[in-house]
Amino acid sequence: MKIKKVLVSQPKPASEKSPYYDIAQKYGVKIDFRPFIKVESLSAKEFRQQKITILDHTAVIFTSRHAIDHFFHLCTELRVTVPEAMKYFCVTETVALYIQKYVQYRKRKIFFGSTGKIEDLLPAILKHKGENYLVPMSDVHTDDLSNLLVKNHIQHTESVMYRTVSNDFTEDEEFDYDMLVFFSPAGVSSLQKNFPDFDQKEIRIGTFGSTTAQAVRDAGLRLDLEAPTVQAPSMTAALDMFIKENNK
C-alpha cells in the first residue's frame, strides 16, 4: 500500500523551507503536523509541595527552552522577583539566548556550552562551584545531569516545574493516516491513550531515537522505520528514503 498521508507528531514547522514540505511535493504526499503530547507547568500549589524556595539559590541550570518558560512562569505565579545577580547556565547558546524573552540578556551573567552535551557545561559550573544551583526539570527526565553534579560535589536542588501530558484528540479530528511518525515514548503512550483499540494493520510507524523505537515495540506495534541511521541522520532524510522505496 502506497503512503499518501503522513502524521508527524511535532508542531508545524515555522519555516516554509522545511524538508517535510519538499518531501510532500516530491512524492505527492500529504503531511500533517499534530503533536501527540504537550508540556504544561505545575501549579503554584503543586510546586510549593516540593518545599523549595527559589530565592535560596544563586544560579539556575537550564537544559531546554521549556525549562526557561516554566521557571519564569512559576516565578510569576509565586510572585518571586528574580534578582539581577542570578546566574544562568545553559546547555547551548540557543537556549541561553532564549532567556531574552524574560530578562535583559546583557545585564545577566549567562554561561553556555558549545556542544549541547551537559558535560561541556561542567567547566563553567566548576568555575562557580560556590553557587547554590537550581535545576528546573520535567516530570520525565534522565539522571545524567544529577549524577554529574553529585559526582563533582556541586550544591544543587532539582525541581520538577513542568510535565508532559497527552494532547488528546477530539471526536471531530480525522485519523486516517498511512504512516505515523513519533519522536518520544510519551507520544506512543498518547496514541494508546487516545486510541485504546488502535489496530495498526497496514499503517506504517516511524520513530526517531532508540527509546522511542523501543516504546513502539513495547506497545506491541510493528516498527517500520527507525532513525537516525548512518545513511539517514535526520527524520526527514529517513522519511524521504522510506517513501521513495514504498511508493515505487
UniProtKB/TrEMBL annotation:
Keywords: Lyase. One of its GO terms (cellular component) is cytosol. SUPFAM superfamilies: HemD-like. InterPro entries: 4pyrrol_syn_uPrphyn_synt_sf, 4pyrrol_synth_uPrphyn_synth, UROS/Hem4. The lineage of its organism: Bacteria, Pseudomonadati, Bacteroidota, Bacteroidia, Bacteroidales. Signal peptide: none annotated. GO terms for biological process: uroporphyrinogen III biosynthetic process. One of its GO terms (molecular function) is uroporphyrinogen-III synthase activity. This is Uroporphyrinogen-III synthase. Residues 25-236 form the Tetrapyrrole biosynthesis uroporphyrinogen III synthase domain.
